[in-house]
Specification:
Helix content: over 70%
Radius of gyration: 17 Å
Number of domains: 2
Strand content: under 5%
Number of strands: 0
Largest sheet: none
Length: 84
């Protein structure tokens, strides 16, 4: 697979992720119809976003500036290799 370099396609991809996430959240809210489920969904999404930020920004900027991650698999490999 080639690297995506077009800024238009990158923005389109981001918007598609946003729409898919919103659709899933709405479908879950409609199915469960409880404030507790909605709050848990919001907290889960927020936590995953913070983890993503941690994996790709905090580690590169503050923990190991020489390492560049290419994805979550790369991050997992880095964490497990660092333990050894």
């Amino acid at each position: 697979m080639r690297e995506l370099k077009s800024s238009r396609w990158i923005v389109a991809k981001g918007l598609l992720f946003l729409m898919l996430g919103l659709l899933c959240a709405v479908l879950l809210a409609v199915e469960y119809r409880s404030l507790r489920s909605a709050a848990l969904l919001v907290v889960a999404i927020w936590c995953f976003c913070r983890f993503y930020y941690f994996a790709f920004y905090v580690i590169e900027r503050y923990v190991d500036p020489s390492y560049r991650f290419s994805g979550l698999v790369s991050f997992a490999r880095y964490v497990f290799q660092r333990r050894r």
